[in-house]
């Protein structure tokens, strides 16, 4: 029975565990609005899109470390562009869960946007999502690597 469950978990796809219905905001979105969205939806990141493409990500950590901790930061005027991490790594909704986990591990990221075959964002997969579905061994390995000091 344990081997069958392990096989089923390895065969799971990203779309089976991802957070669906995720939207993005423009790089010109004020930081205060992004923080309110994070609080309202109990999330730690917001994808940033421009010209129908994902261009970056703002995390709660970005707001604090790149924003509030900076001597020149003006929270009343700051936008996503001021603190976002540019360039974005994604996985596909039809990727095997193990493949997405290895991708997160390699990049040392806690969340990945999920795209479909048309390259449209359809969700986000996070360590929290994985914790409910992945095998303990694979999850432990991924969490250790993603959480390593970098």
Automatic annotation (TrEMBL):
<feature type="domain" description="CBS">
    <location>
        <begin position="18"/>
        <end position="73"/>
    </location>
</feature>
<keyword id="KW-0129">CBS domain</keyword>
<dbReference type="InterPro" id="IPR000644">
    <property type="entry name" value="CBS_dom"/>
</dbReference>
<dbReference type="InterPro" id="IPR051257">
    <property type="entry name" value="Diverse_CBS-Domain"/>
</dbReference>
<protein>
    <submittedName>
        <fullName>Putative inosine-5'-monophosphate dehydrogenase protein</fullName>
    </submittedName>
</protein>
<dbReference type="InterPro" id="IPR046342">
    <property type="entry name" value="CBS_dom_sf"/>
</dbReference>
<dbReference type="Pfam" id="PF00571">
    <property type="entry name" value="CBS"/>
</dbReference>
<feature type="domain" description="CBS">
    <location>
        <begin position="84"/>
        <end position="141"/>
    </location>
</feature>
